[in-house]
Amino acid sequence: MSATLQISSSIQIRKNNLIKDGISVFEYSGTNISDFLGSIYIFLGITYPKFYKMDNLSKLGFLATELLLKDNKLSEKYLPEEIGVNLSNTNSSLDTDIKYFQSTQDIASPSLFAYTLPNIVIGEICIRNKIKGENSFFISSAFDPELTSIYVKSLFEEQALRACICGWVECLESEYSVMLMLVEKNVQNNIMPFSKENCSQLYNQINGKING
């Protein structure tokens, strides 16, 4: 492939910590995931009322993307059809599925039912950022860096995309983890080349120590 794919930015959310390009930018001292996500929303200075209607999985992906794209205005560089999203996790939308099932014991909640598919988080990201390119959500027992790298690279090779948000967004009850990458080609301010090894390294750091 002639174009060099690079990771122009990365985001990790783990253990009440929000990390961009390897540097901690926000840390929360509480234990409630909803309060943590609300605190990130306030920290980022976002005005987007629909955020409060999202489930926790969508909030995680939404907030991570907000910071990922904060200094990179994709809409000014690419057409909506040239930007894609590829995400994955293990538990699909199970966190919301459980809550929806519990609601059916009384009155089924339409607002919860709307989020009982894992790719809804992609929809929220695309609506917010006016993204209309290729998108997909993979379910696997763990993050698969080889599949992610091969699949995303193929989209660039087919000239379907010029930028892609890809990575991992997981949430089940109080456990959560996020690792997102913004992949572009021939950018100069890159962190690292887009490769299976670097995808794996960024994902593995979710459970390791990151110095801020």
Secondary structure: elements and pairs:
Blueprint: E1 5-14, E2 17-20, E3 23-27, H1 33-43, H2 56-68, H3 74-77, E4 83-89, H4 94-103, H5 110-113, H6 120-129, E5 135-139, H7 145-157, E6 163-172, E7 175-185, E8 192-193, H8 196-204
Q: Would you write up a description of this structure?
A:
The protein is α+β, with helices and mostly antiparallel strands and 212 residues long. It has one domain (5-207): 3-Layer(aba) Sandwich (Peroxisomal Thiolase, Chain A, domain 1), CATH 3.40.47.10. The protein has 8 helices and 8 strands, in the order βββαααβαααβαβββα. It has helices at residues 33-43, 56-68, 74-77, 94-103, 110-113, 120-129, 145-157, 196-204; strands spanning 5-14, 17-20, 23-27, 83-89, 135-139, 163-172, 175-185, 192-193. Strands 1, 2, 3, 4, 5, 6, 7 and 8 form an 8-stranded mixed sheet that branches. Strand 6 (163-172) and strand 7 (175-185) form a beta hairpin. Helix 1 (33-43) packs parallel to helix 2, helix 2 (56-68) runs parallel beside helix 6 (120-129) and helix 7 (145-157) crosses helix 8 (196-204). It is globular and about 55 Å long. The model has no long low-confidence stretch (mean pLDDT 91).
* First and last CA, distance: 35 Å
Overall 3D geometry?
Answer: globular
- The string of secondary-structure elements, in order, is EEEHHHEHHHEHEEEH
Radius of gyration from the alpha-carbon trace, in angstroms: 17 Å
Beta-strand content: 25-35%
Largest sheet: 8 strands, mixed
* Nearest-integer average pLDDT: 91
